[in-house]
Every structure is written in structure tokens, then in C-alpha cells.
Amino acid sequence: MKAIRKNSQVSGKGEIGVWFSSLGLSLGLLMIVALLGVIAYNGLSVFWPKRVVQVEFDPQSAPDLGSRSAVAGIITSQKVKSQESPEEWRLFVGNKDQYGISYSYFDRDSLLKVTQPEDLLVLERTAYGKAIGYPEHISGPSGELVSAEHPEFAERLGSLVRECQDRGKEIRKLETREIGAIHEALENLRLQQLRLERQSELSSKDREALEKIEKERARYESLFTTLATQARSLRDLQTSHKLQYRLASGEEIDLPIGEIHRFFYPNQIGFWGRAAVFCNHIKEFLLSEPREANTEGGVFPAIFGTFVMTLFMCVIVTPFGVLAAIYLCEYAKDGVFVRVVRIAINNLAGVPSIVFGVFGLGFFVYLVGGTLDELFFSLRLPTPTFGTGGILWASLTLALMTVPVVIVAAEEALTSVSPGLRESSMACGASKWQTIQRIVLPASAPGVLTGMILAMARGAGEVAPLMLLGVVKIAPSLPLDNQFPFLHLDRKFMHLGFHIYDLGFQSPDSEAALPMVFATTLLLIVLVVVLNLAAILIRNRLRRKYQIAGF
Hints:
Elements: H1 2-44, E1 53-57, E2 70-80, E3 87-92, H2 96-99, E4 103-107, E5 111-115, E6 121-125, E7 130-139, E8 145-147, H3 153-197, H4 204-238, E9 242-246, E10 252-256, E11 260-264, H5 271-287, E12 290-291, E13 296-297, H6 300-331, H7 336-348, H8 353-376, H9 391-415, H10 419-427, H11 432-461, H12 496-506, H13 510-548
Antiparallel strand pairs: 1-2, 1-5, 2-3, 3-4, 6-7, 6-11, 7-8, 7-9, 9-10, 12-13
């Protein structure tokens, strides 16, 4: 009986521990869900078109708007600081080129009148953010006018905006592809000429090559002049039609239609119209390039750079991590050397990421990259090719940072393989390497993928080392394109993590950039989850496959 009572007391104490553990787990999951909910709400609300209000107030209540007595904008927050103080509104007023600010603050008691006029127009511009006002008319190069009261005004404005957008794509194609290709060809000709001129003596064949280079340069320069003139004429057409709109305070502004990216009447459209604008905003966010100091437009270059860097990092780290684990688990004999290696691996897993960034800058960029420039790209010096930050050095540094995780996970997976499988393979005449290659590695593949998933999750979110190794605010071109050699490992790149840092701490207008911080954070979380889910699905498939095979 005493033994039964003692066991019941022990089990009762154990149940308390289980309940406390479950409570801690529940609180942790609740905190994670709450955090993700806040990020998702604030991130998705950026793209939902909100109604616009016009407020009339005493000019003394809003000194940041000068002597104006009315303004139109979007209510972004309503706060009550205390019972004694009045309710405070924060209004997104847009028209930053006119007001000098994006947000204005008002006491609710100071507002004389608040209305929602249906003819208020929201203009998303290529520069200076959104503009909010009342449309007046459209003017053309010959002076013709289309009044805002005309029934076909919105259709006419939409057709002009689409024409300007198509023309803008043609301009970008001329300036980035065709003119960019000419610049690259001229640079290659310059290097060829420099290589010939550095020779001590020129043969007749070399002189003919120099003359050919001069002719090619003249041809490319003539073609450049033609394309530049064509691009200039297209840019002039972008400003041929103008939209005149009126602010709530009465000022009239002429805006070239080529600077309008999108427009809509937020107080006229219903739920489905707002849903259509919402979908267009998300599509633009995912597939377009950033503009207006990264506070407007999309983040496609950052998505692409993050994906390519993470994928390249996994391709580098997995073979080295698995080979190191095979050596430690299958070949190395326990001794001082192996113990030192294991201690070093465990210590590397705890080194701050910025230390790896400094090492990557010194070893990969300055030493390896500088040596490659001297050996293979000496004609381009002092302009570095590989002796500066790029996606190759960033991927190698992150691979070095995450290789301890892969080694530990792969070694645990290798040791978990049943010794009977090894003995059965060797009993059938297989060598040790054949056993590792055909029995041990396939059976441990799910565990190796677990290490790769952990490395991927850590590497995709790192920012500190990338700031030293090639990440930039705006990348002129992607590291992967249709130009030979297609994958340009020396190019700088954009990254979602650095994009968040840049928006939150380096933006000239932090208040306007805050919504994009939440949207980009949500996107980074989704990207990491998608990459991890893909690896988890592959791991589970391999696990089922080798369980069926009897491993």
C-alpha cells in the first residue's frame, strides 16, 4: 500500500509538470499566432483601398499645412490618449510635393466638417507617392480639353494612362536592353583595344584589328545616338497630355499623364471594385520593381535575389556538410583531432552572423575576389569584378555560417541508420563506400534534408553579413537573366531582409514606409515557409519511400 501511495504521489507531481509544459507550449503558440496575425493584418491592409474623406478645420489646428482650411486624405488611425484629451486623427494627405509631408494630425474637436465626396480621385504616381484631389480636365498637345464632367472622362483618362504605360515599357526596353547591350559591346571593344595597345610591338594583323575595333565603335556610337534620340522622343510624348486636378484647399495642379501609374475613385467603387484594386496591388507588389525610395511599387527583385541566394547557398552547403558528417561518422577514429573538430563545429554554430560577414569580406571578397581580378580581369582594374560584394560571396559566406547545422543533423541521421543494414550489405560483398553510397545515405536522406531545412530557414533571414557582401538598396539588374553567361555571380542583389531594414531605418519618410515594412515582413515569412514546406514534402516522400524499402 505504501508503494502504491508513493507511486500515486510521484504520478501526481508528474501530471503537474505535464500541465505546466502544455501551458507553456500553448502560450508560445498563442504568441506566435498573435504575432503572425498582427503582421498579416497590417501587411494586407496596405493593399486594400480605403475611403477618402475631406475635412474642414480651423487653420490654426493644423500648422503643418500652412494656411489651408481643408484637406482630403485617408484616415489611418484614431487614438484617444486619455479621458481628458480629445481624440486624435492621423490623416494620410498624399500630395507630398505640395504639402511637404505625407501625414497630418488633427484633434477631432477641431474639425468643423467631415465628408466623403464621390468625385475625389486617388492618383498613384511614379514619383512623390499618391495624389488626392478633384479632377478638372485633360489637356492635349494641341490644347484640346476633356472635362471631368464629360461622361467618357474616366475612360479617356484610363486609355491615356495605358498608352503611357506601354510607352514606358518601350522606353525601359530601349534604355536597359538595347542601349545597355551597346554599352556592354563598347566596353568589350575598349578592353580588346587596351589588350592590343599593351603589347610591345604591333603586327600588321594587330593594326587591322585596331582599325576594325574603331569601325565597330563608330557603328555602335551611331546606333546609340539613334536609340537615345528615339528614347528622348518617347519621353517627350509621356508629357504631351496632362491632367489638371484641384486640391481640397483650392490649388490647381497640372500632372503629366505619363507620371500616373494608376487611378481610381475610392468613394464610388463597391466591395468587388475594392477587391479588384486589392488584387492589382498585390500583383504589382509581387511582380514589379520598387519605386519612390522603395516605399511604392513592388519587391520582385528582392524576392528573386532572396530565392536565388538561398537556393545557391543550399547547393553549396549540403555536399560539404554531408561529406564532413560521413568522415566524422564513418571514417574518423575517436581521438584528439576528432574531438577538436567537433568542438570547433559546435562553436561555429554559436558565432554571431556579423563575424561571418567580416570574414567573408576579408577572405572571399578581398583575397579570393581580388586575386581573380588580377589573374583574369586585370584589364578592368581598378574597377573590380569579383573583388567586390556579389551574390557568389554572399552565398558562400552564408553556407559557411550554416554548415555546422548541416553537419550535426547529417551526422545524427547517419548514426541513426541500423548497424544491421551496414553488416548485411558488407556480408553480401559490398565495400564500405558502396554501403555508404547505396544503403546509408539513402536511409539517412530525410535527416540530411532536416539539416538543410534548418540551414535554409536561418540563411534566408540573415541580413547582417549581407550588408557587407553585396546586398544593395536598388539592383540595376537581376543576377539571372537571358544574357550570357545567364547566371552572373559577380552582380549585387536585393534581399527581402535588407529591404525591411532599409524601409524601417533608412527611408527618408519612415511613416510612409511603415506599411510596406509589414507587407515585406509578411512576404519574407511566407517565402521562408514555402521553401521549408517544399523541403519537408521532399523529406517525407523520401522517408515513406525508404520505409517501404525496409530501411
